[in-house]
Design goal:
single chain, 5 helices, 2 domains, elongated, mainly alpha
């Protein structure tokens, strides 16, 4: 929208607000004192809130500059130096992520290796030969033995 349209919208809103205020104030004389005082205090709070909302909030931050490089332009931080330091600081989170991934991968590998070693040790130290575990009837036998042991 352009500024003329914004101005028209604001003028219309102000006229509406004045009409509503006039209507509300017209019946104010007939109200008891305590109610009219509460209404006055509420109006003051509403006005104070509106003034706070209308006040522009300024945040101090460095704005990027357009840096020309031959025929092209790109966003940059100007010529204030310290670019290697910014690059190093921005690489720290990536390095931390990579270190974390390596640590998680190593711990998962060790955990998986220890599980496989436990299964192998149980198979080798058991009284049954390994071919018994491959027998389809053995799985059924384990189910029946397990259900009778539970009773």
């Amino acid at each position: 929208m352009n500024t003329a349209t914004n101005a028209q919208i604001e003028q219309t809103a102000d006229r509406f607000a004045r009409r509503v205020t006039a209507r509300l104030s017209a019946g104010n004389d007939d109200l008891p004192y305590d109610i009219s005082e509460r209404l006055r205090a509420a109006r003051m709070q509403a006005l104070a809130q509106r003034k706070r909302e209308a006040a522009p909030v300024r945040v101090a931050q460095a704005a990027p500059a357009v840096v020309r490089n031959g025929r092209t332009a790109s966003l940059g931080w100007g010529s204030e130096g310290g670019n290697w330091w910014r690059a190093l600081v921005s690489a720290v989170p990536l390095a931390a992520l990579l270190v974390g991934l390596v640590v998680v991968n190593a711990s998962q590998d060790e955990y998986g290796t220890s599980e496989v070693a436990e299964v192998d040790a149980a198979l080798l130290t058991d009284d049954l030969p390994p071919s018994a575990y491959a027998d389809p009837g053995f799985a059924q036998y384990l189910k029946t033995v397990g259900s009778t042991a539970a009773h």
